[in-house]
Amino acid sequence: MIEWWNSLSVVMKVLWAITLSASLIFVIQSILTFIGAGSDSDLDMDVDATGDFDSVAADAADASAHSTGMGLLTFRNFVNFILGFGWSAILLRSSISSTSVLLIVSILIGIALVFLVMMLFRWLGSMQQAGNINLFRSAVGCEGKVYLKIPAERAGSGKVQITINNAVREYEAVTDGDALATGTGIRVVEVLSSDTVLVEPLETLIV
């Protein structure tokens, strides 16, 4: 191993060092992304009920794009380019004698890898969005029950479990009327934020 390393030219040593570093960073980024730790897409979407929900959705999409590396000028894409460029130059060095041609081919492969990874994350993002529930459009009118007692007249919040699109979800909840005890049947009247709803009691008690 030492003999092989010493036999390399200075340029190849630098190329190997940069490429291996980029490979390590790429692996770490990929692991963090897929376990959710590499994303800053936890958005605090405290929106007034009369606000423009379409605008909020657009902002969320933009933030998601930056956090998943779908923006063109990002550190992730720089690493991807170095990854494609470096490995191409190393693997094709013995096949392409012309240095200029080797550089051009390696650059093109690096650019291609950037766009391939961008498309991959775009596809993964669309899959994730397809599985998410749009609370603002889906929650109003849904029924459920109180999970944790809700104080009267918005003096505090409790928790409710409501059914949206045949799935049971849990949200913070407030009410304008009397306090609602655990187990009380409720209906969502309004969505106050991404995790808080305004509810009213149903006529019957859900046990």
Could you walk me through the main structural features you see in this protein, from its secondary elements to its overall organization?
This protein is of the alpha+beta class and 207 residues long. The protein has two domains: 2-132, no CATH class; 136-205, OB fold (Dihydrolipoamide Acetyltransferase, E2P) (Beta Barrel), CATH 2.40.50. It is built from six helices and five strands, in the order ααααααβββββ. A hairpin with a 2-residue loop joins β2 (158-164) and β3. α4 (75-92) crosses α5 (99-131). It starts with a helix and ends with a strand.
List the helices and strands and how they pair.
Elements: H1 2-7, H2 10-35, H3 53-67, H4 75-92, H5 99-131, H6 135-138, E1 143-148, E2 158-164, E3 167-175, E4 184-193, E5 196-205
Parallel strand pairs: 3-5
Antiparallel strand pairs: 1-2, 1-4, 2-3, 4-5
Give the DSSP E fraction (strand runs of 2 or more residues): 15-25%
Give the structural class.
alpha+beta
Based on CA inertia axes, which overall geometry fits? rod-shaped
Poorly predicted runs are 37-70
Number of strands: 5
Task: Estimate percent helicity.
Answer: 40-55%
Mean pLDDT across every amino acid position: 76
- Total domains: 2
Order of helices and strands: HHHHHHEEEEE
Spatial ordering of strands, largest sheet: 1-2-3-5-4
Main pleated sheet: 5 strands, mixed, barrel
If helices are DSSP runs of H or I spanning 4 or more residues, what is the number of helices? 6
Rounded to the nearest angstrom, the radius of gyration is 26 Å
In angstroms, what separates the terminal alpha carbons? 71 Å
